[in-house]
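Methods — Computational structure assignment.
A single polypeptide chain was analysed. Its primary sequence is given first, followed by the predicted tertiary structure written as structure tokens.
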Amino acid sequence: MLQTIMGGVANNTHQTNTEFNLVSGNGLIWSGTEHFQIISAPGTLSDMRVKVNVASGAGNSYLWKLRLNGADTGLTVTISGASAKTGQDLVNSVAVVAGDRVSISLAPTSTPSLSTRTTWTFLFTSTNNNESLLMSMTGLGVATDATTYMGVQGWSSTPSSTSQMSQMVVAAPGTIDEMYIFLDVDPGDSPEGYTFTLQKNGSDTTVVVAIVADSVSGNDTAHSFSVVAGDRLSIKIVGVSTPTTTPTIAAGILFAPTIDGESLIMGGTDDNLSVSATEYNAIAGGRGLAWNATEQIRSNMGQQIVVSAFYVHQFTAPSTGDSYTYTLRQNTADTDLEVVIANTDTTGNDTTNSIQIEDDDDMSVRVVPFSNPDGSDTIWGMKMVVGVLPVAAVAPGSGMFGAALGAGIL
């Protein structure tokens, strides 16, 4: 099956140094230290697309590379010159297997202009049917003597102290089939280690990975559990024998959709909603990205996909007479995919509308408060299918085909 992987960062590119970032999610700043995410199913990565908000300048350029297990691959994008802001590699592909580590690198040439927002996408083609990727990473801060938690997709700045603060919502039914974990440092001396348990709706499942001293990776390929739309996933982290080190953690999880071709978009933030201001966030941001009043720096770039099944979960209700309205945005315009959370409700969904996204389109989530609602941290999920909807199924005003419908051309 096919799956689009989305990532991005609202952080200045470096004008002289090579730096690194994650393949999936938003929020991790460019860094001279390489951090990884983990592949959970065999397949290929291809169709790399990159967009910046500031051109490199005449005679200058930036070069992005997909990295595999700490080495450059042939999947690269160069953006150069005074006007270009997008680039793509639609020729090369890279084979991956479960347990591989992936990242991206960025190298400047001739002191290019700073870009404050960079987004990228890849196409994952699985070797087997009904296999898609969830990739996440969390920064330093895991507790050695207490339970902490991390998300299952994208970037979480630090592990959180409660499951709620790391949960992410599922938007399509399927099975969670395997989990792979990678640490950037050894936990310490025997018997020190860490145990990682996948949770569903705040409760432990049977999917567990234990990593002990003298090892930095582990997996559970023997256990699985089913999920339905609206379920919430997180990873519980427990230190064993008070480990000496506090590593960064990368997790790769295999999601096997009930309907082949459906994959998950997951986002959320532990930044409380504004009670009065319209704000934006990345649709596939992980749990570490705050709401922002500027849409451009909270956008994801898309490929040709159909997005539907918009699920939202607030952990605090707006209160009686108040509401929040969440809308998928496409190229700074509203789409018909929208969820309203009102009164004493904490969940809502739109399972009616489907939106056609085209290559290089910008996407974001906008939230609008009404009547001074109570703030809340929030998670959301959508499902996507790579390709094009039949013309009659496209919402008017969404994508190239929907716009034509709305104008009466088709």
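Note: The longest helix spans residues 399-406.
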